[in-house]
Write a structure and sequence with these properties.
Rossmann fold; 355 residues; DHBP synthase; 12 helices; binds threonylcarbamoyladenylate; 2 domains; globular; 19% strand; eleven-stranded mixed β-sheet; five-stranded parallel β-sheet; binds magnesium ion
Length: 355
């Protein structure tokens, strides 16, 4: 049985934290909240424990883990050197939802980094994560605490749904705030590159490192995805196939409604991810609506996204349709990225007029 330790998210009970920390030091698997999503923690320098973690998640061994530490002072043993760029990012954004990829030292096991010469490091800001890592007194490798390819957990109930009996403990500190995983920045190659968008957005990073750019990715281009959906890296996904609609809101809603009716006509149970602004338009369709909040409140949409995808599974959906909205908020790119990765099909309706 996986033990659940409920703690106050702002002021966790030191006894509970010490129990969880002791479990980590012994090589146990302990899920805990961070400000982004729940992580599944393990002693980063214990190879056997790291291998158990990969097995518990069903995660392929070629996907590297992020190592979590309490302060920048704990980074030195894990890396060959910290460049001025790394210091600048750490000084501005740690503790917080930013992972920095740098060249690693030999102290970090191959099992953690998937054999890469680099390691991803992050200092989380969540009080429970901070208390746990500092009580453990060791670096903690932690992927998101979901089964491989499922949406990341933003609540302890999601962790239990995926990993009950497969891990030792869950420290339950309630729902996480950001809702999508940290921004990952690679500083190990020439120019700094954003590998994964998150709450620390491109403009915020550019204010510190003007040369930084987004990675050019073929898997997140709508056109490439449409041509060969099989090539999409399916990730963060509910069990049902997800279709996302990009472009003009009116046109996207019309296309969603039309496709939903066709799927229902074909006997499928359909769930739509609906913004508050869309509900009046969609409510009469014979589908289930899963609410994403207001399209103008991107932080709220991000916080709800993974729970919404899980709810589609709980409703027994056989097809999920969602619309993508772009805003000025830093999390807009992250929500778009995660919906693209969840998608089996991306439909661009263009900038105006229903197709
Ligand atoms: O917010 C987060 O980052 C959460 C919380 C728990 O901290 N963790 C998380 O871990 O999302 P995970 O394992 O689900 O995603 C980590 C991703 C890897 O899939 C990989 O894309 C990237 O971070 N990553 C880690 N180490 C890397 C490295 N050495 N080089 C390139 N990418 C790396
Ligand atoms: Mg993950």
């Amino acid at each position: 049985m996986t033990e659940v330790l409920r703690v106050d998210s702002d002021n966790p009970d030191p006894n509970a934290i010490e129990r969880a920390a002791a479990c980590l030091r012994r090589g146990g698997l302990v899920a805990f909240p961070t400000e982004t999503v729940y992580g599944l923690g393990v002693h980063a320098l214990d190879r056997e424990a790291v291998l158990r973690l990969f097995r518990a998640k069903g995660r392929p061994a070629n996907d590297p883990l992020i190592v979590h530490v309490s302060t920048i002072d704990d980074v030195a043993p894990l890396v060959t050197e910290l460049s001025p760029d790394a210091y600048a990012l750490a000084a501005r954004f740690w503790p917080g939802p930013l992972t920095i990829v740098v060249r690693r030292s030999r102290a970090v096991p191959d099992e953690v980094t998937a054999g890469l010469g680099t390691v991803g490091i992050r200092v989380p800001s969540h009080p429970v994560a901070r208390a746990l890592i500092s009580a453990a007194g060791i670096p903690i490798a932690a992927p998101s605490a979901n089964l491989f390819s499922r949406p990341s957990p933003t609540d302890a109930t999601h962790v239990i749904a995926d990993l009950n009996d497969r891990i030792d403990m869950v420290v339950d500190g309630g729902p996480t705030e950001v809702g999508v995983e940290s921004t990952v920045v690679d500083l190990s190659q020439g120019l700094p590159v954003i590998l994964r968008p998150g709450a620390v957005g491109l403009d915020m990073l550019r204010a510190v490192l003007p040369k930084i750019d987004l990675r050019k990715s073929t898997t997140t281009q709508p056109s490439a995805a449409q041509r060969s959906p099989g090539l999409m890296s399916k990730h963060y996904a509910p069990r049902a196939p997800v279709t996302v609609y990009e472009g003009d809101a009116e046109a996207a809603l019309s296309a969603m409604a039309r496709d939903a009716l066709a799927l229902v006509g074909g006997g499928k149970r359909v769930a739509l991810l609906a913004f508050a602004e869309d509900v009046a338009r969609l409510v009469d369709l014979p589908v289930r609506l899963v609410h994403l909040g207001s399209e103008r409140d991107t932080a709220d949409v991000a916080a709800r996204l993974y729970a919404a995808l899980r709810e589609c599974d709980d409703l027994g959906a056989e097809a999920v349709l969602a619309r993508i909205v772009t805003t000025q908020h830093a999390l807009s790119a992250a929500v778009r990225d995660r919906l693209h990765r969840a998608a089996t099909r991306i439909i661009d309706v263009g900038t105006g007029g229903a197709r």
